[in-house]
């Protein structure tokens, strides 16, 4: 076929770029059965280098898709951060040890695994759940949006021309030896110019094939040089600094004692080195390159001066008097520190941008891949429910994407700006040295940012998806202390409004994964295991102590309401479950989970809990996986979920959790009218 | 090729039968690189039914091969046992709840997974580590042993003729619909005659192909009707009872409240039902068939009278007044209770028998597959080290197989005899009813046998592989209480001799998997994760508090001895490591692991621990995975391994662990002469 023939095809969602943000979006599409294309200009996925840090929250998300165990098994777990700074003699010495991840905030801790493996898990997951496959060596070359059609939910207002590259074009020389000691480590660095336009031009000249694709929605996950963003005309805002850092992935041979710890080494006058221990004996070194400065006119560094040897020699000077050498280098690169963010992340709620396409910053805190994936995680279910026509209106869910994620991008940029300055600054010689960075300041920054870097401080502001009642405690009032040692202290709970019915559960944050015990089988499981990423909203009925007759009556009455007959008096559960789907089943967009606080042996599933809470199926019998107890387990202790969330053990509460595990609504079993209103704003009535 | 042509081939080990015992043996061969053939007369692995219970110890073993996580993820976890018996009105009612697995004895709890999945994990593991593949539709038809050659370690004294069946023969009609409601559930039951001879005869008549195989060693894992055992002329000893039980794997539809628990339901006069909840909503029911009795003359039941419907109706009567029905049956069978054991398990330490080939019993306590696998686990490494000529003599390791495993088989038979009687007996009407089984007696049997059924009570008697010094506390003296709540009480520690240097660590039992913290990275890991099944003996140096100078000197002196120059003064470590292999590396048959008790931040790996404990490699640098601390971890508490094992925190101890994780020797760092003698009795000097 020549380029003049342009077959036309259709899809619901087109994803441009198969990095972490694109793959995360595609994972949702795969789980929700959305007709999706995902294209990437590169001929292969990456095999070495690139991003590697995995935050707790990213692992929780992987777990919600069912593959956290693969990442957890292969990754290097980082437990401790060691700080090194100059001693009285000017030599570096260890000044502090702190836990890398604060205890008790997640089932997971930060860990490190090569981006290529993470992409592999996504690809396997997509294959398991759908026929969506990444089309490699394919890139968009033109984009048109028919504005007249953007409000029509059945329309395909987006027209994209896709060019199919030859294998040779999709796999340039640099990529073939990417990052190896003799390869070009700067290919994909922000020190290198973008090659997208060259690829398109070369392909046009050769007459490669072209295809016209009509799409309902499009997601640009095409990196810092985003072609999609350029078509939309969004300008990144922010600036670059003069600081250039090198990166080496090596198997180090050294007498430095903390080479298997995450370290920040601030030398007296040779700059800063960061150590990130990795899988397979590898260690990543981030090295400040004091001797290389960007050209004053162009703002860019001379790339020819940056080699693995230059980077390595800088590292040796910082880590002296310890010896450091290596025989094996897996990858290397260099980058210029800067922070930039796009003013908006979407056009007409039809075209969206995610990941590096809308925020760029320095990689040292291991945030980039995580925040990018979390963009895709925020967007994916909203897109899927909208395509499925389960959203109350076309934009009810989608319109929250930009405000929710741009706020996070802004926080990230601010964090990175502050953190990079502390990293790059010269260490203070003494207390009087006000221009230097004191170790105490660096330590304080680590402590303050521990929650941020875990990804667990993400708080979405009030909207139709995060309902804050007038009686909520404001964000600046700290949550109460928990009486139990295994619950996080208030400073590890994100500052956000909290309902008086769940005083330690901030609205707009992800619900913590406390362990609960299955009523029918005694199995202890994390609450998160009950909230897989399927696209369903969950109503968590904290039923309280149902052995108390007054409380039992309240729960019975709530359940009677839930199953009340069709309109005018039908419940939100009936209103928002399509008529063809039985209430509260796996196929339903709205599901119930019960967590009671009564002694498990004092209640019986079939006797004490109304049928709607554990529905009956003619083939499978009763559903035994929907009623749980906050009680001690035989082997895994007692997590005391009620206390941890600040919910009263007698009277309970109702918590609505979004498909992405974020808390959307907190109330009591009596507030049914308000629940109706909440769901009317997000899900379609049938 | 016709049957008259018989090509001759050679292998080190021939395994007959690819069930759990055979596959476990093959897993060792795969890990140790032994030239192995494994044949099975059946044309496929099984897909439904058969064994399903997985003990803690089996999961620990899977973990030592690296695939416990797959089993753990797919299995149904059994947490609680509910006992039901007749109330005053004669109706069944719940009388007791007990934990299925006693807390704190293992990282795992008992769980249930279909045998076919477990076989799949083994097959995948073999594929990952070797080119050993199960040859299906292949069975031995003749066996000769050249007795003149049995003592020659280079000889192939075993000659076996193997016949290769056609696909049609290897896959009989019954197998094709195995266990389905309309299929023959009794195919493979002990109520059915063996078909091996028919298969051979039919194949001979059709002129199938034949092969002559010479082997150094042979392992018969060919089931209760073992062809191999028959060739050796070993007669099973024991007897059958009149009791016949049926088995159904169904998705039950019921109002019985404990259908997702393990239950024993003793009805007043309709017999006993056992409930085993399984994966995918399935439940296995074991049902006493009171109305079917074996024929007095033949001792066999009339198989035509046993149908799924007959079995199910019996279950309904026992569980009444609760309702029970089903739409889906995955598998069914029936069996006659009996206990039999073979008088010996090997011939000339050249041919070995394992699994059902040497012990048969009733399946209800979920022991069969586990004990069979553990036979293979005990034998495999001994066989591999012998073939590799690492055993001190040809029979030094192999001669321990029969005594170690026959003792376990005898315990199993005794356990099953007692347990089956309690299960099958009529429940006592009241205290005066001496002929009935009291619920208290059944509960006591469950409590007493909890350790046995977990597989963790296995204790190998003193031998060259289990060294018991004169100063050991005898088996009948209970180990001391631990001051820490998370350590098992003395009744959950197997009764066996214990060294005064490790007062809670019985000799000949598997070492517990206490969590320790990596000195270099702060990673907490179970001790078991440091003892993978590679075939290596491990010397665990509990180095004590090395911040105390006297103790540090003792450890230095032990390490100086370890690396002392070649003979006459060379250490056991040098003597038993082949000269081509660096000391204490992954390839070595003898490895060191250090667990110290000093505060982790007070010691440095490179400064405080001699190099032999964390050897240097020119490509990989220092080994950071060999020195660990018994200290609190940031996220997973403090397991207090020293206290749990009864080792003094100041002065430590040395513990030798066999390749199968069983404790072989306990002493102090000063007892080097005794360590020499121990290793001289098991490993070859170079």
Mean pLDDT across all amino acids of chain A: 91
- Domains of chain A, number: 2
Annotated CATH topology of the largest domain in chain A = FAD/NAD(P)-binding domain
CATH superfamily of the largest domain in chain A: FAD/NAD(P)-binding domain
If you compute it from the alpha carbons, what radius of gyration of chain A comes out, rounded to the nearest whole angstrom? 26 Å
Classify the secondary structure makeup of chain A into a structural class.
alpha+beta
**How large is the count of helical segments of chain A?**
17
Given as residue ranges, the uncertain stretches of chain A (5+ residues, pLDDT < 50) are none
- Biggest sheet features of chain A: 8 strands, mixed
Structural commentary:
Two copies of one chain form a homodimer. Chain A is of the alpha+beta class. The first copy, chain A, has two domains: 8-238 and 339-451, FAD/NAD(P)-binding domain (3-Layer(bba) Sandwich), CATH 3.50.50; 490-680, 3-Layer(aba) Sandwich (Glutaredoxin), CATH 3.40.30. Helices cover 26% and strands 24% of the residues of chain A. The first copy, chain A, is built from 17 helices and 28 strands. In chain A, the strands form five sheets. In chain A, strands 1, 2, 8, 9, 10, 11, 17 and 18 form an eight-stranded mixed beta sheet that branches. In chain A, strands 6-5-13-14-15-12-16-19 form an eight-stranded mixed beta sheet, with helices on both faces. In chain A, strands 21-20-26-23-22-27-28 form a seven-stranded mixed beta sheet, covered by helices on one side. In chain A, helix 2 (56-65) packs across helix 3, helix 10 packs antiparallel against helix 11 (401-424) and helix 11 (401-424) packs antiparallel against helix 12. The longest helix of chain A has 24 residues, at 401-424. Chain A is globular, with a radius of gyration of 26 Å. The interface between A and B is large, with 44 and 44 residues.
């Amino acid at each position: 076929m020549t380029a003049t023939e342009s077959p036309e095809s259709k899809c619901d969602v087109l994803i441009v770029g198969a990095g972490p943000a694109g793959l995360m979006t595609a994972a949702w599409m795969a789980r929700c059965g959305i007709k999706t294309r995902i294209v990437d200009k590169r001929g292969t996925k990456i095999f070495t280098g690139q991003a590697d840090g995995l935050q707790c929250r990213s692992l929780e998300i992987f777990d919600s898709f069912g593959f956290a165990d693969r990442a957890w098994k292969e990754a290097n777990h980082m437990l401790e951060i060691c700080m090194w700074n100059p001693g009285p003699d000017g030599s570096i010495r260890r000044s502090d040890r702190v836990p890398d991840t604060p205890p008790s905030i997640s089932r997971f801790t930060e860990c490190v695994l090569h981006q290529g493996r993470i992409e592999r898990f996504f690809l396997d997951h997509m294959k398991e759940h759908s026929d969506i496959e990444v089309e490699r060596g394919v890139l968009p070359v033109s984009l048109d949006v028919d504005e007249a059609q953007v409000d029509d939910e059945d329309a395909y207002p987006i027209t994209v021309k896709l060019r199919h590259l030859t294998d040779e074009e999709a796999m340039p020389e640099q990529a073939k030896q990417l990052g190896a000691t003799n390869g070009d480590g700067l290919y994909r660095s922000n020190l290198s110019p973008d090659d997208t336009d060259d690829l398109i031009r070369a392909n046009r000249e050769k007459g490669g094939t072209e295809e016209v694709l009509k799409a309902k929605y499009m997601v640009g996950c095409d990196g810092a040089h985003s072609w999609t963003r350029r078509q939309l005309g969004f300008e990144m805002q922010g600036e670059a600094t003069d600081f250039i850092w090198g990166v080496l992935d090596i198997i180090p041979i050294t007498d430095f004692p903390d080479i298997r710890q995450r370290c920040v080494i601030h030398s007296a006058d040779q700059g800063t080195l960061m150590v990130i221990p990795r899988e397979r004996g590898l260690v990543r070194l981030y090295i400040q390159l004091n001797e290389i400065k960007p050209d004053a006119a162009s703002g860019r560094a001379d790339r020819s001066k940056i080699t693995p040897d230059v980077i390595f020699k800088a590292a040796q000077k910082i880590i002296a008097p310890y010896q450091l050498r290596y025989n094996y280098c897996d990858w290397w690169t260099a980058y210029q520190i800067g922070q930039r963010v796009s003013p908006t992340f979407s056009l007409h709620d039809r075209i969206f941008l995610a990941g590096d396409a809308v925020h760029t910053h320095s990689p040292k805190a291991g945030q980039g891949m995580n925040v990018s994936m979390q963009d895709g995680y925020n967007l994916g279910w909203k897109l899927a429910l909208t395509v499925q026509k389960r959203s109350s209106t076309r934009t009810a869910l989608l319109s929250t994407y930009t405000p929710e994620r741009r706020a996070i991008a802004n926080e990230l940029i601010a964090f990175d700006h502050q953190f990079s300055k502390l990293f790059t600054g010269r260490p203070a010689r003494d207390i009087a040295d006000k221009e230097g960075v004191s170790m105490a300041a660096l330590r304080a920054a680590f402590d303050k940012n521990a929650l941020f870097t875990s990804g667990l401080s993400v708080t979405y502001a009030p909207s139709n998806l995060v309902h804050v009642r007038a009686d909520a405690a404001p964000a600046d009032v700290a949550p109460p202390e928990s009486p139990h040692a295994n619950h996080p202290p208030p400073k590890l709970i994100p500052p956000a409004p909290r309902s008086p019915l769940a005083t330690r559960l901030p609205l707009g944050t992800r619900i913590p994964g406390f362990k609960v015990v299955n009523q029918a089988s005694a199995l202890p499981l994390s609450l998160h295991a009950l909230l897989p990423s399927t696209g369903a909203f969950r109503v968590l009925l904290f039923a309280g102590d149902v052995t108390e007759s007054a409380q039992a009556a309240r729960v019975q009455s709530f359940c009677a309401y839930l199953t009340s007959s069709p309109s005018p008096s039908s419940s939100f559960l009936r209103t928002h479950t399509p008529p063809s789907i039985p209430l509260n089943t796996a196929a339903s967009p709205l599901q119930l989970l019960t967590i009671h606080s009564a002694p498990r042996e004092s209640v019986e599933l079939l006797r004490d809990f109304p049928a709607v809470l554990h529905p009956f199926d003619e083939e499978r019998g009763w559903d035994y996986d929907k009623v749980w107890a906050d009680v001690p387990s035989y082997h895994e202790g007692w997590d005391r979920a009620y206390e941890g969330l600040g919910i009263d053990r007698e009277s309970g509460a109702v918590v609505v959790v979004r498909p992405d595990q974020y808390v959307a609504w907190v109330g009591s079993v009596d507030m049914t009218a308000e629940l109706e209103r909440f769901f009317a704003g997000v899900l379609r009535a049938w």
